[in-house]
Amino acid sequence: MSSARRTPQFPVSTIGLIAVAVVLLLIGFKGELRAGTNERIVTNPYTGLAIDGYDPVAYFVDKEARLGMPDREFNYGGAVWRFRNEGNQAAFVAHPDIYAPWFGGYDPVGVARGVNLPGNPQFFAIVGERLCLFYSEAARRKFLADPRKILRAADQRWPETRATLAQ
Question: What is the Cα–Cα distance from 104 to 51, expressed in whole angstroms?
């Protein structure tokens, strides 16, 4: 076969780049960048979403765990936070220190023992106008039996347990 009729050969790296571009186009990539994982706030390591995409303000307003919307995101503290509506997002942006979960979303019962257990967005309580997330329903019940005692112990242990988490 003469060189004039030979089909061009692309390097493997070029084919790989083309394949990635096609996949991104097919899934609707919009050029969004996710926040990196910050262990000081409980985030999903694959998406960078804080509290698995639940709206932190909805716990206060709706008194239940409600997922935020992908088109309502805000980067704060190295994590992506989602919100159900513009009002919830505005409230969080104005006062993230109030609406973000206590202890970065770690279970206060675990923190009181010196252990960083990620809270589950389904197990929560509003205490002292702050959101607490718990590892399990059993941890939530234990906390609610004596919240002052556990919060006092957690507040004392948090600086040392927080120091073990990556920024």
Answer: 9
- Give the CA distances from residue 162 to residues 63, 95, 110, in Å, rounded to whole numbers and listed in that order: 28, 21, 12
53 is written with which tokens?
């995409």
Residues near 129 by beta carbon (within 8 Å), at least 6 away in sequence:
98
Does the structure show a pLDDT above 50 at 24? no
Query: Is residue 39 assigned to a domain?
Result: no
Q: What is the mean pLDDT of the chain?
A: 82
Spatial distance between the Cα atoms of 99 and 113, rounded to a whole number of angstroms: 24
Task: Please give the pLDDT value at position 11.
Answer: 52
Tell me, what's the pLDDT at 131? 97
Report the distance separating Cα 132 and Cα 123, nearest Å. Answer: 8
The reply to whether 137 falls in a domain is yes
Residues 116-157: tens digit of each pLDDT: 999 999 999 999 889 999 999 999 999 999 999 999 999 999
State which H helix or E strand residue 49 sits in. Answer: none
Place of tokens 């936070």: 81
Domain count of the chain? 1
Residue 101 lies in domain: 51-162
CB 70 within 8 A of CB 76: no
Structure tokens at 6: 């030979």
